[in-house]
Design a protein that fits this description.
Helices cover 48% and strands 25% of the residues. The protein has 153 residues and is of the alpha+beta class. A hairpin with an 8-residue loop joins β3 and β4. The longest helix has 24 residues. The model has no long low-confidence stretch (mean pLDDT 88).
Amino acid sequence: MRKQFLLFSAVLLMTSLFSTTLQAQWSEAKLQAMYSNFLDGKGYENSIDGDGDVQFIYNDRTFFIEVNEGDTEFFRVVLANIWPIESVSEGLQVVQACDEVNRTMKCTKAYTTNDNVWVAVELFVGEPDIFKDVFERCLNAIELGVTTFVDEM
């Protein structure tokens, strides 16, 4: 039993070290460059914003890809500030509309930040560059989330 525990502990330690090494391969600068180069290849105008995220224009709206070197398996695309909340009564309606998006859509989240509504797609991708296979679907899901939100308002 002790040998099994020691073997299990060694495997956990090796897995942790390997995972940490893989994470270190993806620095903030490398992630930014990968996202930016991908967007360039798709013809999307893009830049690095003040938070270090990669901002881009799609269908006349400003989106950003969150750059998170602390969790490179997590991929998040955000469309911020789609709806300002101007009153308490409107805020209650916003909550219901966000709930409808969150309840009916896969991977798409609608939520409030600083009295404004944001819509995002959040995924676990395994490896950071895997996002490329689903990027267009993420953008479509966000746009459908916006439509669902607005329809509920």
